[in-house]
Amino acid sequence: MNAIQNRYEFVYLFEVTNGNPNGDPDAGNLPRLDPETNEGLVTDVCLKRKIRNYVQIAKGDELGFNIYVQERAVLNQRHQKAWEDQGIEPVKKGDYSKLPKDQGKARALTDWMCRNYFDIRTFGAVMTTEVNCGQVRGPVQFAFAHSIEPIVPLEVSITRMAVTNERDLEKERTMGRKYIVPYGLYRAHGFISAKLANDAAKGTGFSEDDLALLWDALANMFEHDHSAARGEMAARDLIVFRHASALGNAPAHRLFERVEVQRVVEGIPISLDAARRNNAPPARRFEDYRVTVDEGDLPDGVTIERRIAAAARRAA
What we know:
With 316 residues, the chain is of the alpha+beta class. It has helices spanning 44-59, 75-86, 103-116, 118-123, 194-198, 208-220, 252-256, 272-277, 307-315; strands spanning 8-19, 23-24, 30-31, 39-42, 124-128, 132-137, 140-142, 145-150, 154-160, 174-192, 232-243, 259-265, 268-270, 289-293, 302-306.
């Protein structure tokens, strides 16, 4: 598989309805919040986890698409497999904590991990543990997702009708709490570096097939992640900026500025600031927003594709 040759940036929009998209363990699992703006947050780690889970479902045990970071994984065992498969002996007997002095052998270990694990090829990994396989920077990175508007988390009381022990049969039912966001539309920015994929000395080999799988995961990962805690979550739009070169043809932040999310009030799109000034009713569905992309006067070498919204329109 040939590594990608083009740089990409993308804007990813997803929603939650009556769920907790990313609980904060430091705040009793409340939905994560920016304390200054009350905008909801979803971490990059959370989004990467969902991509990993989707790839695991979609690809199973297919060669080259294993997942490195997964539940109950013993990472040193995976590193050891690379040493054994490559037939490389440690410099000092039994000491696998140091890479071979031979740069070719050291790189062979890292390359083996990249070839076999999709998430290493995609997001990179630090594999400098007791069994050392080096480290690589991943070509695909996410920023934190922010909700388009402030959210108001709700605390919901729940009861458990069953008991754990016979001695508790006559006691009052156990009370509990869960937290939800009634509705939130979240926006995340992503970056894909061709140089970190195809560099001869340090690249991970992230390929066009891997890129297609990433787009597929972003479109469908919430379809296989439903739970009582997360309520209804759905991918709503994916706006991809493709550069004609590996280094890129325009600054990422300038491209992101072309994507605007507006509120729709009584059928009329208005800016988010105007919606706040006019005390617009809270958004409760995706149709309460309008997403526009300025495709005029694009920088030379940059093209735009709306992958999720366009697919939904074709299906309709």
